[in-house]
User: What shape does this take?
Amino acid sequence: MTTDTDLDAMLAQLPQRSTRECFAEIEAARRTEMARPPVRTIIPEPELPPLWPHPDSGTVRFRCALGPATCLWAYEHSIYDDDTEPLSVPLSADTGEIGRLLTERAERRSTELRARVEQAVRDHFAQAHPGQSIPERTV
Ligand SMILES: [Zn+2]
Assistant: This one.
């Protein structure tokens, strides 16, 4: 319970799932991920940011795949600046439609970020490491 009675009323309307149901959902997601064919990417492993209030919080770094002994370049992405797009939800939307809208927005943002990082990596290799193939990794 919270001190906000409106919030308590809304929380009471949410479906109450058992621990077994939650575990089954997590297990199904894990199996789906294990069955996914591997994908090759030129996007380096992201370096996740420290938590707020650290001055670098919110900045994800994709360092040059050649490593710090060879190159110190990194593409920096601010997750705080990335989430400024408003989300319009019709007042009549049910939880399924809200979930669909959030999923569509997340997939669109993910696709855009992937394209930005890939282009930054290609531009970096063209300028700093001309003629060298861009290392790939499997995800
Ligand atoms: Zn480099």
About this structure: The mean pLDDT is 92.
